[in-house]
Amino acid sequence: MAYKLLDGRDLARRMKEAMKLEIRDMAGKGIVPGLAVVIVGNDPASRIYVNNKKKDCEEIGIRSFEYALPEDASEDQLLGLIDALNEDPAVDGILVQLPIPRHLDEAKVIRRISHDKDVDGFHPYNTGELMIGRPVFAPCTPAGIMELLKDAGIDAAGKNCVVVGRSNIVGKPMAMMMLHANATVTICHSRTANLKDVCSRADILIVAIGRSEFITADYVKEGAVVIDVGMNRRDDGKLTGDVDFEGVSAKASAITPVPGGVGPMTRTMLLKNTIKASKMHKRDMLS
Ligand code: NDP
Question: pTM, whole model, 2 decimals?
Fold first, then answer.
C-alpha cells in the first residue's frame, strides 16, 4: 500500500513563514514577542534543545532570553528567577527545560510559572483548561500532531484512536485532544494487557513510549495512520522512533518519519504559543 508521508519539516517551514509575517505585523504595532528559556545544569541533550529553541526564535523574529543556572542551583534560586520573569513585561513565555536536576521539585517549578506565560502548557491551570475543552496553551507535541493531521486532511471523528504512553507531556494531553476531535480513544501504558491486539484495532495509532522501533507491523492495522513521537538514540548514534518505519510503512496509509515528523512540529508549536501569549499580553496595543 502506498503511504502518505506526514512531513513535519515541510509543515513547520510553512507555519514559520506565516508566523514571520504575523510577527512583522505585530512589530509594526510596537510588539515583539519574547520567550525566556531557563536551563539548569549541563545535560547535553537539554543544551541542544535550548539552542534549537533560540535558533527558531531568531529565525522568525521572537526575542529569546536564556538563563543558565548551575547544576547545584537551589530551589529558591530557580523559583526567584521564575518570579522575576513572571513580572518582566518583555517576557511573554517562560520555559524551564526539563528534566531539571533531581534535588529540584519539578511540579513546584512548573506551578510557579504564571499560567499566562506557560507556553509549554504544563501548568495544572492549562492542563485543566485543556481537559474541559478550552485550551489556552496546549502542550506542544500533541498540539503539533493535531496540526499534522489537520494539514493532511485526516479527520479523527468517529475513528478508533490508540495512544501508547500516558506521560503528562505527551500521552495524556494527546488522548484528550483526540477525544475533543471526536475520536474514540484508548490509552495504553506499560501495564496494558494484549497491547498488540489493542493497537491493531487502531485507525489512528500514536506512539510515545521511548522504546526504539518497538511497534512493528504486527501491531498495526492495514491502512492505519501511524504517528511516531519517539526519539531514541541508538548505540550506533542513529536517531530512531518508537515505530519500525520500514515494516509499518508497508501497512500504514499515512506515517510520520523520525526524524522530520513530530519533532519539528513540537518546536513550531512553541513559537505559536509564544505569539499567542504575546497577543494576549499586549491585546490593548493590537486594537
Ligand atoms: P515517558 O517516559 O514520560 O513516558 C513513557 C510512557 O510509555 C509511559 O506512560 C510508559 O508507561 C509507556 N511505556 C513504556 N514502555 C512501554 C511498553 N513497553 N508498552 C506500553 N507502554 C510503554 O516518555 P515521554 O512521553 O516524555 O516521551 C516518549 C517518547 O517520545 C520518548 O522517546 C521521547 O524522547 C519522545 N518525545 C519526543 C518529542 C518530540 O518532539 N518528537 C517530545 C516529547 C517526547 P507507564 O506509565 O506504565 O510507565
Answer: 0.98
